[in-house]
Design goal:
Length: about 100
């Protein structure tokens, strides 16, 4: 049985940022997701491309298990947020920072 995009999005929706008590979806970080065969292709927006590797890796790891629980391999492509999305990201991060990394 193949996994639909809706099922993938449902699995990703509740995942919170490792340092911010807000979901990756609400932060504008999961821009898009698609299922191609046995692979989940996730387009992840970053506030800036130069974020530390520890944060980037933590973001990938936060979505790995839900994706693998669906029986899919994970492929993440990163790109930079638009200024509007970045402004919202920083507004939410200031209000909900938990800083665990």
């Amino acid at each position: 049985m193949s996994v639909t995009r809706d099922e993938l999005m449902a699995a990703l929706t509740p995942i919170e940022h490792p340092e911010i008590a807000v979901s990756l979806m609400d932060l504008g970080m999961i821009f898009d997701a698609a299922v191609q065969g046995d692979t989940a292709n996730i387009a992840m927006a970053l506030p800036m491309m130069g974020i530390p590797d520890a944060v980037r890796n933590a973001l990938v790891e936060s979505i790995r298990k839900p994706v693998e629980d669906l029986g899919l391999k994970l492929n993440v492509q990163f790109f930079e947020m638009t200024p509007e999305v970045r402004d919202r990201f920083f507004e939410l991060s200031r209000a909900n920072w938990k800083g665990t990394i």
